[in-house]
Amino acid sequence: MLRQIAEIGADPTAGISRVGFSKDERDAHELVGGWLRNLGLAISVDPIGNTMAVRRGAAENKPAIAFGSHLDSVVHGGKFDGIVGVVAMVEVMTLLAEGRAATEHPLKGMIFACEEGARFGEPCIGSKAIAGMLTEADLTRIRDAEGITLEQAMSGIGLNPLQLADVRWNRDDLAAFLEVHIEQGRILEGESRPIGLVDVVSGSTRLRMTVAGRAGHTGGTPMQHRADALAAAAEITLAVEALANGPTYRGTRATVGVLDVYPNRITTIPGRVDMRLDVRDFDSDRLRRAAREIADRARIIADRRGVAIDAEVIADTSPVVLSMWLRQALSQVCGELGIDWRFMPSGAGHDAQIMASIAPAAIIFVPSKDGASHVPEEWTSVADIAKGADVLYQAILRIDDVLAAS
Ligand SMILES: [Zn+2]
Question: Which ipTM was obtained for this model?
Fold first, then answer.
């Protein structure tokens, strides 16, 4: 399965480039949707491209237990991020089809559209629409680097963004959501543990800062007459790193990921730099405090250097504590299967954290080799993926029992 999915969007330069709302992403959904259809499941695709496979429950009118992940990747990404959770979902549906085990609750296999924020800056588009966290205004506001809006991207591949309202789920229809995902860090590998049960997912605050200095001739402008936007941006970048390394913000992660330099010419002093940075934390107060302090420090640096600065929050997501009872059910399942596990936080965002806004949600981590992710080297062993799928399968049966009894 992994190999077949990896053939779609394979990038001739490196890795997989199967970005959100591309034809490749749709092709991957169709491929996996076909496998699920062959298992006798009812497949549907909602107006913005989330694919769902429903297995009916024995009882009428019960809310669904949903599980799955995403099939889009970053540019030059790997073969496992998201894919592993979809493959685990297909495995569970296959086991259920073979064993014909009936569950009380309907089961919903999910493939979310456009989880990666790499293209549009905004992650988890598909799950946000389901959770009612994506507005019609977002469809025209959110653009990729080429200026293509979400609405245009969706329409361009045959989706129907104007029916966004129909995508939203009623929270009474969902009992729980579970996602198997690669860890994207090296904790599990370092401890030789096959399973991590996520307790909290980092929040993230993203800032755009524009530093405006004065462009000029690199030969003709004496050093003391300069207002070099890049030198200021560089000092701000180091200040961001220093802040996150300081004792007050231990555990906070702050990264300047984008520096667009204008005019970006070897003989012109940089006149303007557009910076984008990402702050992550498990503590929502500290997260926002760090973002404010970064903007304050940047202003002080800009003033001292005689450049102007404009800072703006472009995205802000709170940390999410995942369901305690699902975590406990999962830890019991791991114990019974004799699988070594630990609780751990997730530094990266996932669809499950969005689904947590409408139902109890859980994330089951499997190890990432060398912690590599969003790169072609991303790798997780088939044995570890199988353990993740096994835990998912047993957990779904357990959750079904617990909910049916309550
Ligand atoms: Zn992912």
Answer: 0.96
